[in-house]
Amino acid sequence: MQNILFRANSSSIIGIGHIMRDLVLANQFKEDRVIFASENLPGNINNKIEKNNYKVEILKSNNLDELVLIIMKHAINTVVIDHYEIDYDFEKALKKATDVTIFVLDDTYQKHHCDILLNHNVYADVDKYTCLVPKNSEVRCGFKYTLLRDEFIKEKQKGRQLSKNSIKKNVFISMGGTDQSNLNIKILEALKETPNIFVNLVTTSSNKYLKELKYYVKKQNNITLNIDSNSIAHLMNKAHFAIVTPSVTLNEILYLEIPFIAIKTAENQKYMYQYIKRLNLKILEFFNVDDFKSSLKGF
To answer: Does the pLDDT at position 282 exceed 80?
Structure first.
């Protein structure tokens, strides 16, 4: 049995994607002891980690010495790092101080000092890491390594669950758990001209715009607001099309083979954006009402 430490944060600014995918990865270590180390940032989902029966060590900062103390305290063998602000120099210093196995999740082709690197996105290219990691590193890239919760695998087995009503269209919307760009209401407003649609919009209690979103949805009769939902895969699978960001969510959309419009909202989504653009699928570099309405044609 190994002792494995996940180092990741969540907040209303960072979002919750890192923690959510780490929970999927952590579930693969069923025979090992798993602990998380996270900062107590506003809008975090550390309680979600605890609900999955993992201990959470609260960090005061992203300080190397503080992390080393936790590693020593729990006799950690492997540290899984899913944190954009932990870089090559930090990882090298961590390796020197502890000699732990370093397992890094990467989305943006950064240089890492690691033993194992995982880029689980569909666009990931192993050749791009040739000069970015030590020669003896194990690099895992692409769709076969995509981290999918069990609910997505079960929905895939069911096949598409579309409504038999050919007039009514179900639309799935997710602008990330925290909707950092505050696009949900703008998208809903733009959809008003589209007849016979029913919207399932998913978000989380970490969304700092949740109050105004609730107020907006309350006045509509064709929108269901799903907060902290445990049925996201099912909501996706019964949608005729989805409106999402080119983030981890798009890995899930592609897996379920759901038609979509993707809207880039962050710089770390650029590689997914480029990949989808090359496939000539519907994706916007930023939200623009006219371009968005034009993308709706054909659904």
So the answer is: yes
